[in-house]
Design a protein that fits this description.
This is MYND-type domain-containing protein. With 232 residues, the chain is α/β, with parallel strands linked by helices. It contains six helices and nine strands, in the order E-E-E-E-H-E-H-H-E-E-H-E-E-H-H. The strands form three sheets. It has a four-stranded mixed β-sheet with strand order 7-6-8-9. Bound molecules: zinc ion (ZN) (2 copies).
């Protein structure tokens, strides 16, 4: 399944699925698959089987998510959830009480491609595995100056520019990881309450993006304060 970035107009090379027979009761599961010919499902190219018989036995399960792959657009996906990531950044960094955190931390969002999830139908092309705070200095793959995008905002009386870092992993050792950044400008001082717990924001944001929590239930919390205006 191709991953593209519609903003940059580029596509990323797809790699082949792991050499493991998808049938859960595969009789050859204990044998080294590496030495065998493993055929991919011709329709989705997401799973492999060691034999026709394994493929037949697995079909009642696999047909639930076997589909001709849509294009997974990372830029479109990031844009679609932008206001939610902005909220997570605000809550996670506790910008209302600790605005200087914006120069210390980024919000790291680790994603798994939906076609690498082995069962079920994901409502979104990317599945959020985790969201956590990382110090700027701990994101070695990126060289970002925390003050660069913030200068003008601070001069105008705002808090600064926060960054959400998205990491899409192949989901197996040696696979590549794709990084993308999303910038959020906080032009005004934030008023209002901190989130009820220091970790609650993570569960909420992850649940909404992954489709486990309907966004309607959260509208009050997410759209409440004036700071929810979208950044440019
Ligand atoms: Zn098999
Ligand atoms: Zn398939």
């Amino acid at each position: 399944m191709p991953v593209i970035d519609s903003l940059w107009g580029i596509a990323f090379k797809d790699s082949k699925p792991a050499k493991v027979c998808q049938w859960i009761d595969c009789p050859d599961a204990q044998i080294e698959y590496e030495k065998r010919k493993m055929k991919m499902c011709a329709r989705c190219n997401v799973v492999r089987y060691c034999s026709k018989s394994c493929q037949r036995l697995d079909w009642s399960e696999h047909k639930l998510y076997c589909q001709i792959p849509p294009i997974m657009d990372i830029a479109g996906w990031m844009a679609r959830h932008k206001s939610l990531f902005r909220w997570a950044l605000m809550e996670g960094l506790r910008l209302r009480s600790e605005p200087s955190n914006i120069f210390q931390y980024v919000l790291l969002v680790e994603l798994t491609r939906m076609d690498r999830l082995m069962k079920g139908i994901a409502p979104s092309p990317f599945f959020v595995e985790s969201m956590r705070l990382k110090k700027y200095s701990d994101i070695e793959e990126l060289i970002v100056d925390p003050y660069k995008g913030s200068q003008k905002i601070i001069e105008a009386g705002g808090i600064g520019q926060g960054i959400v870092v998205f990491k899409v992993s192949e989901g197996r050792p040696g696979g590549y990881a794709l990084f993308r950044l999303q910038y959020h400008d906080f032009h005004e001082k934030l008023a209002g309450e901190e989130s009820p717990s220091r970790t609650g924001w993570e569960k909420i944001a992850r649940g909404v993006v992954n489709g486990e929590i309907p966004i309607a239930l959260l509208s009050r919390r997410i759209e409440g304060p004036p700071n929810a205006a979208s950044s440019t």
